[in-house]
Amino acid sequence: MTTSRVSPFDWSVLQVVHRLGTPPQQTLAEQVGRQRSTVNGAVQRLLAAGWLRRVGQAVRGRGRPAILLAVNEDAGCFAGVEIAARELHCAVVAADGTLLDHAASRLADDTSCEVVLEQADLHLRGLLSRRGLGVERLLGIWAGVNGVVDENGVVVTSAALGWHDEPVRSRLAKLYQCDVLVEGASAATSAAAEAVLGVGRHAGSFVYYHAGRGISARLIRQGQPLVGATQRAGELGHVVVAPGGTRCPCGNRGCLEAEASGPAIVAALRRLQRDGLPDDLRRLLRPNADAEPEEIIGAAFSRAKRGAGDPLRNTRQRVTQYLAMGAAMAVAAYDPELLVLGGYLFERSMTLRNDVCRALRRMVLDWEDRNLEVAQGQVVMHDRAVGGAAKVCQRFWANPRAVLTGS
Ligand SMILES: [Zn+2]
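Above: query sequence and zinc ion SMILES. Below: predicted holo structure tokens.
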């Protein structure tokens, strides 16, 4: 899309059109707070450069019919790529934020960064070409990687993919010459996606309780997360729930995450006497077995036997109590209308989910009066790719000129 003929002021006119949807051209001057002739000049340049289009006329009173303007959805597009442990999900949205398409594929056996980005590139080009688009039309791309990502878009580590210090943002920027945002797998992204696309989209307020690699409870009100004074609102993971308990990487003992996060449960299972455990679980627990935590935990908890002496049952009961304590704290603190359960512990183990819900009822005061709805999160990986594409789209519209000129 041509940007050379578009003047700095024109971008603010474009932003206003985007915000209003299909405004009549006559009202723009008022909205922007400038002379009508100035604004009309900007509209002409934006129409010529392909950023705006005329969508029709609105007849109002006896005056001349008003010309309606809209952002040209073909002016460019945004992409989201979610790189999970075994799969790749891509989504493309138009310039105005409309979802165009999404698709998924399995990752190749070679999960090196070069190979995965090449596969993502092929996948994305395929998706774009189905819409008659090319990668040169991308205005922004979001990549979500299952791992820890620093503020420069470097994947510091991804255990699932075997990556260390991979500069994903700079590689994608070189490849696509557009705005790039790289983020780790985060509960905050999932909570935001639940608010837009998932089970939370009709709720005025809800708490997203996440239990996987970490444990957190985020309050979303009117689609916006409560972040707190230092962006730590809802980080329950390092509240001590078992004083003197298991040592936590943070230095304390008995943190919620040290007792009930995915890695903590796997560590606890590895400390059990192997002799009494089922054969397949023993195989999964071998240090070189290369099994995912969710696989190990699913196998262990589904094999817990009735009766007090079973070590798997004891582990499951202990984890259930701690996870329910975390949820009870969140319900007491926020008093939400809906509690959404997310993260792999809840996604992969229905038994654990049901156990936690039962325990929660007993821990929350006035359970019946609250009328609290508890629901399993619905957002799956392709939604995160869609959410990511929407995120770079929002970032563009917050300041189109800065995104296009990199200033
Ligand atoms: Zn801790």
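The mean pLDDT is 88.
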